[in-house]
């Protein structure tokens, strides 16, 4: 070997070179597929993030949030109506007592609602939907007027705080839920299902539920808003005051007083309401 200096010669073999090229190609394709899959998963999250940040930016930059809150109120009325009656239910089977109980659980300003009143103004599901949307809209304007008469400018700050705090909290919970979904859908490949498609479907449903919960929490907290004038604390910051105002509001959830009731859940007694929010004098 030393005499012929074979160790200095490169090993040349078409078969070996082809095998090495094939192995390298497989490794590169493997990691390319991994990066492509991660990118496709991230695309699902990015589209949702854009929607959430757009909503958050809208709350931050807007000088008047009335149109957004009215939209929340109308969509929440739609949710409650669909959950308790449904568009396919015949008029004679409408359970208006259950519907009214749930509506009044969300908004005590709708205490004048009666089954006869709703029947007299609604001959179809669409008319009932329009009537409830109008009532939700009017209830918000009535609540806004009540609060502004007690503490001018308070409602605007409370609305912004409620929207931002609910978006931030529920978005964090949503991100955590998506992590679990991404881990879980991998096992569905054994059932001949595409994990990416399953992830998109699960993620989309979770996202819709999150957005619905945001608007329900916000409009529920606004409807239950009961400001009480107190003395100013010089050491308390503006954000702390707003947080104190909102989290001391009427609500049935002791762990999270700003969390709205389930639209299809059993209605709770209004006697469980807590003390009203406090507004700085």
Automatic annotation (TrEMBL):
<keyword id="KW-0547">Nucleotide-binding</keyword>
<dbReference type="InterPro" id="IPR036266">
    <property type="entry name" value="SecA_Wing/Scaffold_sf"/>
</dbReference>
<dbReference type="GO" id="GO:0005524">
    <property type="term" value="F:ATP binding"/>
</dbReference>
<keyword id="KW-0472">Membrane</keyword>
<dbReference type="GO" id="GO:0016020">
    <property type="term" value="C:membrane"/>
</dbReference>
<keyword id="KW-0811">Translocation</keyword>
<dbReference type="GO" id="GO:0006605">
    <property type="term" value="P:protein targeting"/>
</dbReference>
<keyword id="KW-1278">Translocase</keyword>
<keyword id="KW-0653">Protein transport</keyword>
<keyword id="KW-0067">ATP-binding</keyword>
<dbReference type="Pfam" id="PF07516">
    <property type="entry name" value="SecA_SW"/>
</dbReference>
<keyword id="KW-0813">Transport</keyword>
<feature type="region of interest" description="Disordered">
    <location>
        <begin position="236"/>
        <end position="281"/>
    </location>
</feature>
<feature type="compositionally biased region" description="Low complexity">
    <location>
        <begin position="266"/>
        <end position="281"/>
    </location>
</feature>
<feature type="domain" description="SecA Wing/Scaffold">
    <location>
        <begin position="10"/>
        <end position="226"/>
    </location>
</feature>
<comment type="similarity">
    <text>Belongs to the SecA family.</text>
</comment>
<dbReference type="GO" id="GO:0017038">
    <property type="term" value="P:protein import"/>
</dbReference>
<dbReference type="InterPro" id="IPR000185">
    <property type="entry name" value="SecA"/>
</dbReference>
<dbReference type="InterPro" id="IPR011116">
    <property type="entry name" value="SecA_Wing/Scaffold"/>
</dbReference>
<dbReference type="GO" id="GO:0006886">
    <property type="term" value="P:intracellular protein transport"/>
</dbReference>
<protein>
    <submittedName>
        <fullName>Uncharacterized protein MANES_05G009000</fullName>
    </submittedName>
</protein>
């Amino acid at each position: 070997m030393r005499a012929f200096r074979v160790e200095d010669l490169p090993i040349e073999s078409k078969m070996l070179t082809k095998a090495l090229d094939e192995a390298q190609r497989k490794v590169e394709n493997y990691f390319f597929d991994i990066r492509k899959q991660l990118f496709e998963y991230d695309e699902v999250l990015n589209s949702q993030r854009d929607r959430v940040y757009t909503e958050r930016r809208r709350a931050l930059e807007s000088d008047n949030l009335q149109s957004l809150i009215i939209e929340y109120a109308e969509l929440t009325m739609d949710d409650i109506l669909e959950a308790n009656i449904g568009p396919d239910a015949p008029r004679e089977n409408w359970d208006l007592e259950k519907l009214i109980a749930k509506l009044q659980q969300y908004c005590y300003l709708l205490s004048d609602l009666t089954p006869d009143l709703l029947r007299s103004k609604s001959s179809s599901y669409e008319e009932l939907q329009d009537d409830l949307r109008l009532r939700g809209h009017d209830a918000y304007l009535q609540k806004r007027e009540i609060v502004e008469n007690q503490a001018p400018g308070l409602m605007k700050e409370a609305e912004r705080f409620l929207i931002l705090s609910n978006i931030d909290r529920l978005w964090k919970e949503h991100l955590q839920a998506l992590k679990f979904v991404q881990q879980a859908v991998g096992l569905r490949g054994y059932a001949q299902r595409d994990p990416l498609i399953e992830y998109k479907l699960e993620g989309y449903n979770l996202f819709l539920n999150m957005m619905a919960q945001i608007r329900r929490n916000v409009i529920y907290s606004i409807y239950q808003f009961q400001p009480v004038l107190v003395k100013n604390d010089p050491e308390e910051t503006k954000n702390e005051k707003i947080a104190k105002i909102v989290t001391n509001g009427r609500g049935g959830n002791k762990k999270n007083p700003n969390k709205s009731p389930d639209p299809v859940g059993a209605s709770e007694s209004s006697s469980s309401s807590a003390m009203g929010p406090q507004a700085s004098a």
